[in-house]
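Deliverable D5.2: sample structural annotation.
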Amino acid sequence: EVAGFTVMIMEGNAWQVYNADKYLMKRYNVVAGAMKQLFNAKSLCGRLEDGGCHSYIIQDANKNYYVIAEGFDSVEDAAQFIADMSSKITFRLPLDQPFVYRTIRL
């Protein structure tokens, strides 16, 4: 439980692979989608950006792509974003429950 909200937190090494020129990867990343193909991840990332999110994509060592709706410096801010997501994102996400990916390295 973080800031009064129940939030799943995943931790690992990840590298930013898309939109690094616009948004820097943060320590706490709100994952809106997890995919095996970069093409699909880019599509979701674009939809999130069109909706006003500072979206980017990170990749782990297993070549999984995580579409980040927004990145934060604190886990509390990430948890609050997840709690408010339904008012910020108007379309259905591929994940039933968004979660926080805490990057070990930046």
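Annotation notes: The first helix runs from residue 38 to 50. The helical segments are 38-50, 75-83, 85-88.
The annotation will be released with the project's public dataset once the embargo ends.
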